[in-house]
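Here is the promised in-class demo. Please do not try to memorize the tokens; focus on the logic of going from shape to residues.
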């Protein structure tokens, strides 16, 4: 197979995080600590995973960077926007995810990451009170101001490339409105007319990133890049987009566990998932309009793995419920419970209980790193638009619903897509099929 023309990863890679909260600061601190040899990037596919390339006598297992040119951690420069003015060191301490002993060795570097003023609208996250916010007359002004931030950051830090990662709070649910979100021209018009109901601040970040030649990744469940207008923008600027919602705790388990039920042709009558968490994310999600965005994203996982139309005897009318409860004492240490009601031979019922005592940001940080590095790779490989191979990292993978495309939620099918994309970009055959 002919090798794809992947540009080398030369120069610095600017990683601009929207939001400088628990996830972003855990990600940044970890990368800086790893760079100093003081921590290990556990959970990161780009740093640990090996992919088989070639067959038979030619067979080899290689790290991603041995197959394709990946940016190195030493070349990353971090920046951020946030509603609150705390720098990355202060924020990391406040979030209480990491112990001070794991933050202090990179204190100097973290203190230099001072958030730029946020493009923010309180109607989109009522529980946030910060005042480190841009004063913009219209959504279009927000875009212009963000574009300037990106250009200034790139120049000031001598970056050759930028990736923008949304690690900010979940906004209220913005349903897709064909009239505004259907085409790029309509979206731009709405931004200029300051249509605040249909244009979320996150859309301004995404638009600004793409306009400045930077891939955009949506780590929250916001529908920001799930609209045809943004796909058009990504095609026009030939930039990759990925989303949405980091697949970290409960949904990771769900997308890995549901295939056990499906593969053994067991039946499902119900799946009840509940969580408690007490960080700022939990606080924002305590607001019903913000929770709804998360709920839609979390509920979509099972539907494409256990499909009633394919197996009516096994999966018709199963009851699927997801709850998140704000419970401050647990902070970032989320606890998730899954109760799964299955049935077997002759319809006899059984139950499975899963209790995951996880750490939200510890699970999210390696995903941030992988999504950033792989989006940068995709851009250098000339891949643009929706990056389906990144579905592995995301709870509610992007798909073209206007063409009735069904997203792939099955963790192991997603892993095949990831491996095949790396193989293809490295000039090897994509040799595992999803059937
Ligand atoms: N940690 C996980 O396991 C996980 C999994 C999936 C998705 N997520 C999502 O990742 C996001 C970040 O989570 P977190 O735990 O770091 O939350 P957090 O509340 O600690 O941090 C989010 C930060 O974003 C800032 N912010 C909000 N709106 C902004 C805007 N318009 N511009 C700039 N900054 C803005 C807030 O001030 C806050 O500091 C959330 O949307 C969460 O739902 C997290």
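The designed amino acids, position by position:
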């Amino acid at each position: 197979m002919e090798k794809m023309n992947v540009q080398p990863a030369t120069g610095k890679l600017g990683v601009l995080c929207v939001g400088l909260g628990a996830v972003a600061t855990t990600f940044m601190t970890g990368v800086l600590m790893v760079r100093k040899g003081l921590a290990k990037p556990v959970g990161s596919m780009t740093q640990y995973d090996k992919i088989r390339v070639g067959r038979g006598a030619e067979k080899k297992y290689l790290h991603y960077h041995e197959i394709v040119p990946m940016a190195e951690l030493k070349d990353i420069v971090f920046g951020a926007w946030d509603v609150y003015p705390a720098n990355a060191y202060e924020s990391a301490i406040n979030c209480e995810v990491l112990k001070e002993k794991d933050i202090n060795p990179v204190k100097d570097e973290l203190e230099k990451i001072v958030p730029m003023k946020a493009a923010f609208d309180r109607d989109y996250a009522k529980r946030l009170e910060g005042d480190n916010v841009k004063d913009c007359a219209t959504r279009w002004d927000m875009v212009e101001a963000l574009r300037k931030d990106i250009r200034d950051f790139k120049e000031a830090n001598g970056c050759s490339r930028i990736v923008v990662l949304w690690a900010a709070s979940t906004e209220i649910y913005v349903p897709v409105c064909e009239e505004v979100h259907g085409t790029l021209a309509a979206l731009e018009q709405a931004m200029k007319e300051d249509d605040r109901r249909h244009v979320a601040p996150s859309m301004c970040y995404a638009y600004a990133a793409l306009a400045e030649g930077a891939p955009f990744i949506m780590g929250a469940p916001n529908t920001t890049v799930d609209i045809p207008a943004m796909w058009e923008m990504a095609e026009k600027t030939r930039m990759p987009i990925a989303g949405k919602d980091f697949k970290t705790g409960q949904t990771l388990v769900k997308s890995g566990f549901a295939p056990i039920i499906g593969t053994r042709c067991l039946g499902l009558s119900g799946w009840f998932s509940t969580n408690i968490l007490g960080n700022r994310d939990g606080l924002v999600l305590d607001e019903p309009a913000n929770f709804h965005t998360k709920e839609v994203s979390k509920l979509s996982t099972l539907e494409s793995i256990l499909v009633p139309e394919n197996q009516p005897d096994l999966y018709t009318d199963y009851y699927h419920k997801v709850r998140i409860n704000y419970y401050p004492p647990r902070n970032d240490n989320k606890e998730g419970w899954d109760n799964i009601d299955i049935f077997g031979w002759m319809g006899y019922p059984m139950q499975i209980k899963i209790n995951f005592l996880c750490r939200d940001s510890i699970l999210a940080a390696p995903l941030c790193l992988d999504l950033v590095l792989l989006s940068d790779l995709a851009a250098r490989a000339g891949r643009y638009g929706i990056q389906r191979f990144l579905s592995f990292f995301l709870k509610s993978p992007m798909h073209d619903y206007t063409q009735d495309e069904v997203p792939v939620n099955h963790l192991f099918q997603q892993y095949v897509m990831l491996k095949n994309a790396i193989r293809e970009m490295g000039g090897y055959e994509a040799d595992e099929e999803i059937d």
